[in-house]
Amino acid sequence: MSEAAKIEISGVTKSFGSLDAVKDVDLVIPSGSYCCLLGPSGCGKTTILRMIAGHETPTSGSILIGGRDVAGEAPAKRGTALMFQSYALFPHLTVRDNVAFNLKMRGVRKSQRLEEAGRMLERVQLQALADRMPAQLSGGQQQRVALARALITSPKVLLLDEPLSALDEFLRLQMRSELRRIQQEFGITFIHVTHTQMEAIAVADKVVVMNLGEIEQADSAEEVYARPHSAYVARFMGGHNVVSGTVESVADGTATLAGPNGWIFKLNTDSEHVSRGQTIGVSVRRDEISLSSGRSNGENSVAGSIRSVEYQGTYYKVTLDLEGVEDEFVSHVPDHEYRGLGVSTGSAVTASWATPQTHLLRGDLESDGGRSSGPYREH
Amino acid sequence: MKLSKATRYLQVAPLAILLFAFVVVPLSLVVVVSFYTYLHLIGIVPDFTLVNYIDVLSNLVNWKLYLSTLKFTFFTLAITLALGFWIAYFLVFHVRNILVAIGLFLVCTVPFWTSNIIRMISWKPLLGKYGLINQGLMSAGVVDEPVEWLLFSDFAVIVSYVHLYTLFMIVPIFNSMARIDKSLIEAAVNGGATRWGVVWHVILPLCKSGIALGSVFVVTLVMGDFFVVTVMSGGLSGSVTFGIFNDLKFLNYPRASANAVVLVIIVLIFAAGIMRLVDVRKELTR
Question: B38 lies in a domain?
Answer without folding.
Answer: no
